[in-house]
Structure formats: C-alpha cells, structure tokens
C-alpha cells in the first residue's frame, strides 16, 4: 500500500504543477497583451488627449493654428509615398465635401513632406481641402503621429475627439468619421459652445 500511496502523491503533485504551469502561462499571455495595449496607448493618438497648439501655414500661404481652443478641426495626416494614404484620398474628399456645411469646422491635410512634394501630391490627387506641408518637426511627436494615414478630430476644448489610424475606404469608415465630427459638434452645443 505504501508504494501505491507514493505513486498517487507523485501523480497528484505532477497534476498540481501542470495546472499551475498552465495558469502561469495564461496569466503571462494576458499580461503581455495588456503590456502591448499600454505601449500602443503611450504612442498613438486617442480621444481625450490634449492637442497642443502649433502654428502652421497652408500651401496657399494662409496661417493656421492647429489645436486652437474654440475651433473644431479635422486633420488628415499623410505622406506622398504611402499607398494607404493614396487609397484614402477619395474618402477624405468625400468627408470634406459632406462636412462643408458644418459651420466652424476647419479641414486640413497635413503632409509630412516638403511643400513642393505636397503641392504636387495635392494637385495630382485632387485634394479638396487646404494642405499644410512640412509642419513643425515637433508636430508628429506632440500629436502622436506614429503612422499614416491618420485622421484626427480636434474639438473646441483643444482635445482629440477622435483618432483613426489606417486606410479609410469603406462607407462605414467614412460614416464613422462624419458621425464623430457631428457628435463632437453636438457635445459642444450642449455645453453652450458654438
């Protein structure tokens, strides 16, 4: 009977160790996933973050203050070499056209390229909104532009109300941006904003 008891105890210990190992592996995986999420949140734009004010100039020579308190802005970040940006241009133009009636909304393209390259790209692609080229080098870091194409909506409080990184082609994606702009306008109207 002693030998049987020893074998049973050994098997029970192996079972406990195996169960503990499975539990630790699952916890490690969950912590790794959480760590990746936190790392992304540290470098990607998201709703609620403050958008610092920065002076810029459009290709037409107009002065602009990005992130200006009291203004709502829709920003499309792109580069001329990005195939996903090129694929998003028709959606961006559609959004700009649909929101043209929304008073107080400023729509800008922000090219992370030189002015000459941005001007050629804007003409070639038929962009229907003003474009800012060669913004202040700090802009990408302050606005957490870790990739393009990027759509940002800045509300009147100087906060990011919406952020979308990636290609924008689908009608549902277009509607989500338009809806987010209109929702940010409704929130401000409820606060007594314009």
Structure at a glance:
This protein has 194 residues and is an alpha/beta fold. It contains five helices and seven strands, in the order αβββαβαβαββα.
Topology record:
Elements: H1 2-43, E1 54-57, E2 63-66, E3 72-78, H2 83-98, E4 105-111, H3 115-125, E5 131-133, H4 138-142, E6 150-154, E7 160-165, H5 171-190
Parallel strand pairs: 3-4, 4-5
Antiparallel strand pairs: 1-2, 3-6, 6-7
Helix pairs in contact: 2-5
**Overall 3D geometry?**
elongated
Biggest β-sheet strands, sense, barrel: 5 strands, mixed
CATH class of the largest domain: Alpha Beta
Structural class: alpha/beta
CATH superfamily of the largest domain: Glutaredoxin
N-to-C CA distance: 86 Å
Detail the poorly predicted runs: none
Total strand segments:
7
Helix content: 40-55%
Listing every helix as H and every strand as E from the N terminus to the C terminus, the arrangement reads HEEEHEHEHEEH
Explain this structure to me?
The protein has helices spanning 2-43, 83-98, 115-125, 138-142, 171-190; strands at residues 54-57, 63-66, 72-78, 105-111, 131-133, 150-154, 160-165. It is of the alpha/beta class and 194 residues long. The strands form two sheets. The protein has a five-stranded mixed β-sheet. A two-stranded antiparallel ribbon has the order 1-2. Helix 2 (83-98) packs across helix 5 (171-190). The model has no long low-confidence stretch (mean pLDDT 88).
